[in-house]
Amino acid sequence: MFVDRIVVGPYQTNCYIMGNEETSSAWIIDPGNEGARIIKAVESHNVRPVAVLLTHTHWDHITALGELKERWPHLEVLVSEEDSHYLGSKAYERFTETCFDKSFLQRYEKALKGMSEATGFLTDNQFLHDSHLLVMHTPGHTKGGICLYHEQGQFLFSGDTLFAGGIGRTDLEGGSYSEIVKSCKRLLKLPHEVQVLPGHGPATTIGDEQDNPFL
Questions:
Q1: Is 161:187 a contact under the CB 8 Å cutoff?
Q2: Tell me, what DSSP letter sits at residue 60?
Q3: What gap in Å lies between CA 121 and CA 160, rounded to an integer?
Q4: Cα–Cα distance between 155 and 195 in angstroms, integer?
Q5: 152: how many CB neighbours lie within 10 A of its CB?
Q6: Can you give the pTM of this predicted structure?
Q7: Who has the most CB within 10 Å: 54, 141, 157, 184?
Q8: Contact, 175 vs 183, CB < 8 A?
Q9: How do residues 139-187 score in pLDDT, each as one tens digit?
């Protein structure tokens, strides 16, 4: 098993590629931007991507989705049902109502207007047998935000819920400070050695975040 991090786009979003070299399969988490770089990174491992897994659907986590689907039409696109309304043909229209960064919308209008639909929904405590990831519903940054926990590998894709020394912002649509604190405290019950791989910034561990000043 390997995990690659690619920092993409103007928001410096962490896109992750998780791959199993024994089965030649891979999963792409939060393809925020720069689809060509993500595709090149996947192909460098000689693996076949199975699915895109979205921790949430803010614009800076999904903009490369169309490029990936064009390269690999078979790709599953999996997200919580609560966040899925920012995918598909109505995505750009909905972002114009809620996104504060109008320059981003202008720059990536074509990509957001060509947004793929979700092909399936992820639910709390769902175990994804092919990737060995456990879905954890962690609302607060968005209503449908999720984290993905790999118990065997002892790592967690935390999206924009938990950061090194911080938590996700809660002032956007669907945000809730009380909910994100509750979600983070759930995550902090994981083993201390679990590596936290967030949506932005450096990795941390569950142990290090026991003293997170926001919690």
A1: yes
A2: G
A3: 19
A4: 4
A5: 8
A6: 0.97
A7: 54
A8: no
A9: 999 999 999 999 999 999 999 999 999 999 999 999 999 999 999 999 9
Quote the tokens at residue 144.
């449908």
Residue 83 · residue 54 · CB < 8 Å: yes
Q: How far is CA 213 from CA 163, 164, 171, 179, in A?
A: 11, 10, 19, 16
Distance CA 70, CA 99 (A): 25
Amino acid letter at 75?
L
CA distances (Å), origin 187, targets 27, 50, 71, 196? 22, 26, 34, 10
Residue indicated by tokens 């791989």? 197
| Token reading at 137 | 């519903």
Gap between the Cα atoms of 205 and 43, Å rounded: 29
Compute, in degrees rounded to 10, the torsion defined by CA atoms 185, 18, 194, 164: -60
Rounded distance, CA 53 to CA 167, Å? Answer: 21
Q: Compute the chain's Rg from CA coordinates.
A: 16
Answer yes or no: are the C-beta atoms of 162 and 176 closer than 8 Å.
no
pLDDT tens-digit readout, 30-65: 999 999 999 999 999 999 999 999 999 999 999 999
3-class DSSP state for residue 37? helix
